[in-house]
Amino acid sequence: MQTRLSNADVIELTAWRQALHRAPEVSGAEAQTAQAVVSELTASRPDKLLTGLGGHGVAAIWEGAEPGPTVLIRCELDALPILETGTVAHRSEVPGKAHLCGHDGHMAILAGVARGLARQKPQRGRAVLLFQPAEEDGSGAAAVIADPRFAQIRPEIALALHNYPGLALGHGVVQPGPANCASRGIRIGLTGRTAHAAQPETGLSPAPALARLIERLPPLGTGGPVTDPAFSLVTITHARLGEPAFGIAPAEAELWATLRTQTDAGMAALVAATEAAVAEAATGLGVAISYHDIFTACTNAPEAVAILRAAMAAEAIPEGETEVPMRASEDFGRFGAVAASAMLLLGAGEDSPRLHNSDYDFPDSLIPLGAALFLRCLADQLG
């Protein structure tokens, strides 16, 4: 299988990536992005094209003539609800939304893989390219897997990459074991009773409990190196107390925090400790707890790592150095429950703005490199 894109491919895919960057859509709202993907993939003549998968997901399937494994390669459709402050000519044209995690580049890489498959289908098994919705809020992979049509693309091997600022441009890192932390958002609602600000003793203010929780929750995280299986972190992200008025002692408050651990077992323990701390701090108040943006830990399977490492060697991608697992979470972890899966980090440059920075932009030079990596994986596994 030819693993190299032509110069014309690279030029066209770069322009396509930049068009996606101008028109970002956030988690669950990727309708136009999905349509752009379908239009691009149709020209690559897949044997089957699934749309509306787990929301706005798109999956393209190329079938070999001989029996073999199903290899799924996954990218993401969604952007972030952040105002872009960069000055690139192709910056976001949608106020308050931008591709600041590089998912536009990941899509362009898979579109390049599709072009390679159009020129030479696999000899055996099946190649599946999955454009997954709603990665940023942690809901997309679960929705795709729960879709009844997932049975049509259920893989034995699942692969992905993520661009990684801080790592030398074009260098790769992948290793067995923990790859991304588990995380979840916790929203704590506190309810008391309002009073006149001149007579606060006649009400029940949640202010003292809110203050106690802001102080007590972060120390529940052990901190330390993320390489330690006991690593955990609690980050306060939002707090609100009452109404913006001087005459009312408040009755309501809410506190948002993100819980983060290296392992799923660690997350269960941190959740229990957090809920116990809330119960102790909020005695006498109404308490409502809800969880959001739930990500399981992402663990790389050794056999999938071996596939990516072999492709790195064949395509002369240098091995880089960076701390893994990433503290950041990845929805890709859920595919580890259904396949031997692994995610590779592909360096976006040591001096690049970091992921989710308001001025981040995916390096277009990674498009042909990422496509070559995945085409080599498919050639090695499917012929």
From TrEMBL:
GO terms for molecular function: hydrolase activity; metal ion binding. Keywords: Hydrolase, Manganese, Metal-binding. The keyword Metal-binding applies. The Mn(2+) ion enhances activity. Its cofactor is Mn(2+). Mn(2+) binds at residues 101, 103, 136, 162, 356. The keyword Hydrolase applies. Pfam families: M20_dimer (PF07687), Peptidase_M20 (PF01546). It comes from the Bacteria. Residues 184-281 form the Peptidase M20 dimerisation domain. PANTHER family: CLAN MH, FAMILY M20, PEPTIDASE T-LIKE METALLOPEPTIDASE, PEPTIDASE M20 FAMILY MEMBER. NCBIfam families: amidohydrolases. This is Amidohydrolase. It comes from Rhodobacter viridis.
